[in-house]
Amino acid sequence: MGIGTKVPYSLPFGSPSLAGRQAQAPTVSKPHNRRVLIADDHYIVAEGIARLLSELFDIVEIVEDGEALVQAAQSLEVDVVIADVAMPRWSGLRALKTLRALGSQVPFVFLTMHSEPAVVAAAMRAGANGYVLKARAGRELLFALETVMSGQPYVTPSLAAEHLTYDGLPTNLTERQHSILVLIAKGKGTKQIAKELNLSTRTVEAHRYTLMQMFHVHTAIELVRKADALGLLVIQDIQMAPGS
């Protein structure tokens, strides 16, 4: 499937369930016409989520990236969105910000592996209603959906305390820091960045070190991935090869 592909969902007969043991967890009866949109670039994971929810929700569509998420949320009748944070083209965070800017107030729950306080805080500040770790994608996800659809926020308890006390969100970068971050994302080395911005290599190295410390990472690829998850980059900025 190509990037941006929308995948109409139909439950495959006899296909293995990633959430088979959790599927029996809910004790409530199925409400009518509650429609969920799922966005995750790992289709096997998305299918497992769909199977888990199939007794309680109508799965309207599965999409693979943030841009397709926004298109689907705008064109379909959706009662709740479940999305990963890190996806191709647009991150889940960028998709959420776009929907909120367009006036959509659809309940939005992140289901992700990202447990960093900075990412949780960025998601909730951007307008997310819920944040659940994929490791808890069973009974807790169902409870989170019930909670956000009743108008209350939900954050996985193990993350909630850190989210409430976290004040180190590295989203207020200086113009110089952001320029250097974008060039790093484009795969530029220190000497190339220095030449392009008319800076000394020592100054660029100092900014790189500061960015690494701010984002709590050790490599350029980790820095770019974290910045993308926080919505600080757009797809045109990111040209680094995976693992570079």
Question: What does the model show?
Answer:
This protein is of the alpha/beta class and 244 residues long. The protein is built from ten helices and seven strands. It has helices at residues 43-53, 66-75, 92-101, 117-125, 139-149, 157-165, 175-185, 190-197, 201-215, 220-229, and strands at 6-7, 35-39, 58-63, 80-83, 108-112, 130-133, 154-155. Strands 1-3-2-4-5-6-7 form a seven-stranded mixed beta sheet, with helices on both faces. Helix 1 links the parallel strand 2 (35-39) and strand 3. Mean pLDDT is 79; it is low at 7-29 and 163-167.
Task: Give the termini separation.
Answer: 24 Å
CATH class type of the largest domain: Alpha Beta
Poorly predicted runs of 5 or more residues: 7-29, 163-167
Question: What's the number of extended β-strand segments?
Answer: 7
- Number of domains in the coordinates? 2
Task: Bin the strand percentage.
Answer: 5-15%
Number of H/I helices: 10
Average pLDDT over all residues: 79
Helix/strand order, N-terminal first: EEHEHEHEHEHEHHHHH
Biggest sheet, spatial arrangement of strands: 1-3-2-4-5-6-7
Largest sheet, described in full?
7 strands, mixed
The CATH level-2 architecture of the largest domain is identified as 3-Layer(aba) Sandwich
- Within CATH, the superfamily of the largest domain carries the name Response regulator
Q: How many whole angstroms does the radius of gyration measure?
A: 19 Å
Shape, per Cα inertia axes:
elongated
Structural class: alpha/beta
Q: Helix content range of the residues, please?
A: 40-55%
CATH structural fold name of the largest domain:
Rossmann fold
